[in-house]
UniProtKB/TrEMBL annotation:
Residue ranges occupied by any Flagellar basal body rod protein N-terminal domain in the UniProt entry: 6-35
Sequence ranges assigned to domain Flagellar basal-body/hook protein C-terminal in this UniProt record: 195-236
Record keyword S-adenosyl-L-methionine present: no
Lineage of source species: Bacteria, Pseudomonadati, Pseudomonadota, Alphaproteobacteria, Acetobacterales
Cross-referenced Pfam families: Flg_bb_rod, Flg_bbr_C, LlgE_F_G_D1
Segments forming domain Flagellar hook protein FlgE/F/G-like D1: 87-152
Location(s), subcellular: Bacterial flagellum basal body
Organism: Gluconobacter cadivus
Main location class: other
Family matches, as InterPro entries: Flag_bb_rod_N, Flagellar_basal_body_rod_CS, Flagellar_FlgE/F/G, Flg_bb/hook_C_dom, FlgE/F/G-like, FlgF, LlgE_F_G-like_D1
Protein's UniProt name: Flagellar basal-body rod protein FlgF
Length: 246
């Protein structure tokens, strides 16, 4: 098999990866707080050796899957009327405590358990500015949350939601479609902008993803046709050599 076929196969492998990422984006188009992913490809240059190479043929460029990164552009605000549904306008993340430790999230759909603990859809406790779970008295029912995260009920203030930022968003590692893990130190946002009764929707644009999927599919099919044509060319060349040798 010639190197041109290997190069084409490297491109096909990259397109399969890109298709997987786009499909994941599309499946999370309605997931609260989801941030779309992108793939980053680069050229892997293989330097040829030898003095008999034709001019300009000293390198071979393969497609290399370098990384997957997230687009942290804010999603659209969606009104729900639920007093424990919260959206973040601008920077920052909510903090929730999971079985594996504290995680960051933009998914602000919370609920109150029977014991008064405020948790996300998976039962992870929402944390305050001191990193402690937020608990609302079971007898309180009128919940208001200010833009800076102060939770108040008919009996007074019950705590303040902790909103933090990470040093480098690109180093956040996804756990599922809503949670983000970081090994970096986080910093409290001094003036967060929390909007009560709303959630931040996914920032996936379906038309963009569909267009991208069609482009990936066309490129993959083109590469597949090239590989087939190369295989046919090599077979014909071998047949002719065999005939001449006979």
């Amino acid at each position: 098999m010639e190197n041109s076929t290997y190069i084409a196969l490297s491109r096909m492998d990259a397109q399969q990866r890109a298709m997987s990422v786009v499909a994941d984006n599309m499946s999370n188009a309605s997931t609260v707080g989801y941030k779309r992913e992108n793939v980053l490809f680069s050229d892997f240059l293989s330097h040829q050796h030898g003095s008999k190479q034709a001019e300009g043929a000293d390198t071979e460029s393969y497609t290399q899957d370098r990384a997957t990164y997230r687009d942290f552009q804010q999603g659209d605000m969606q009104s729900t009327g639920n007093p424990l549904d919260l959206a973040l306008g601008g920077e920052g993340y909510f903090q929730v405590r999971t079985a594996n430790g504290v995680r960051l999230t933009r998914a602000g759909r919370f609920e109150e358990q029977q014991d008064g603990a405020v948790v996300d859809e998976s039962g992870n406790a929402l944390l305050d500015r001191d990193g402690q779970p937020i608990v609302i008295p079971q007898t309180d029912h009128r919940i208001t949350i200010s833009a800076d995260g102060v939770i108040s009920t008919e009996t007074g203030e019950q705590g303040q939601i902790g909103i933090v930022t990470a040093q480098d968003d690109n180093k956040l590692q996804a756990e599922g479609s809503r949670l983000l893990r970081t090994e970096q130190p986080t910093t409290a946002v001094e003036r967060p902008n929390i909007v009560q009764g709303m959630v931040e929707g996914s920032n996936v644009q379906m038309m963009t993803e569909v267009t991208k999927m069609m482009e990936i599919q066309r490129n993959f099919q083109f590469m597949a046709q090239f590989v087939d044509a190369e295989a046919t060319r090599q077979k014909n060349a071998i047949d002719k050599i065999v005939q001449v040798s006979a």
